[in-house]
Amino acid sequence: MTLVSRFFLILTFLCVYTVSGFSKPGKPGQKLVDPNATEETVALHKNLKKLAKKHTLFGHQHATEYGHGWAGDANRSDVKSVTGSHPAVIGVDFSGLSGRPAEAIEKTKEALRQNIADTYNRGGVTTVAWHFSNPVSKGGFYWVDSVSAPAVSMIIPGGSHHETYKQILRTVGEFANSVRGSDGKLVPMIFRPYHEFDGGWFWWGKPHCTREEFIQLWQFTVSYLRDSLGVHNFLYAFSPDCLFKTEAEYLERYPGDAWVDLVGMDNYTDFGRNGRYNVEAGIQKLKIVSDYARKAGKLAAFTETGLESIPDTTWWTSTLLRAMRAEKMRLCYVLVWRNDTRSPTHYYAPFPGQASAPDFMKFYQDPYTLFENDLPRLYR
Questions:
Q1: Contact (CB, 8 A) for 235 and 44
Q2: Which of 46, 56, 237, 314 has its CA 20 to 30 A from that of 149?
Q3: Where in the cell is it found (predicted)?
Q4: Ligand-binding site membership of 268 (annotated)
Q5: What is the pLDDT of residues 61-86, one digit of tens each?
Q6: Domain definitions of the chain by residue range
């Protein structure tokens, strides 16, 4: 090799090295909330970000735990019964890890652990909601006038129930550190605490705590799990409801880029709830989320949506897919809510024979959507 050839080879290497961003470790988007995140968690983040350029993963809450008219069947989901594939993203909930007898909590842990590990072993993604009961009063996770206490101010550092909250987090942390796949690795999870905080229906909602209290709660939760409890397999997701129209309103209770890996939105209102559609407004709100994610180097997702009972037989393609593909957005996943076991009307994904199933097959077959069978190896 000539000296000139060597020069150009070195020059090319340096250009690739610089463009790839490795020479600038402080570049926005290169850092996770947890600098000690496991290799599999880092890989999941990286691969979701890459896939979002051309695809969106489809998710369903509690998809493999139960469905329309069944519960507890192995390797089953209503989505799989219709399409042949599980959803790419499976939603679970940590609601059962506190506020119950110890025996019930242990039973919940066992079932959750198996479910999350199974999803990982198949190559899918787990996202975790947290509808946990008020740790200070009765009323459950909903705000109930005259019963519920404004608990946020009481569980943050200095509050009367701060130690109670730390114990709850210890249960969460111990569980997170116990979930391993068949390869022996800790399973990554997208942890989405305190969702829909801009509304008043949950005890952590906007009317029940100040902006500063909510941000302190978020930052303490993340730091305690990460730094004190050694949880390194979480990506942290921020998801208000759809009660915003501008980026400033969206970010009103945002804890800061150092504390969030994924930004999202829950929105049923604009997508047909109670027969009312304002899809264009929904698209603009998703665009705010997606645009901020790209600017801040975050993942973006449509963290909850759906149309109960799916009476609109073309909702999947004419409403949801149209919104996902609009405005060149980069959404790594969209998740619809659960299918209740007993209720004849409370379901958000089709099952065999449901009226929207044919359109859901078109949604499934569209190259833009990814289901579990479509996924590359996300954890490498």
A1: yes
A2: 237
A3: Secreted
A4: yes
A5: 999 999 999 999 999 999 999 999 99
A6: 38-374
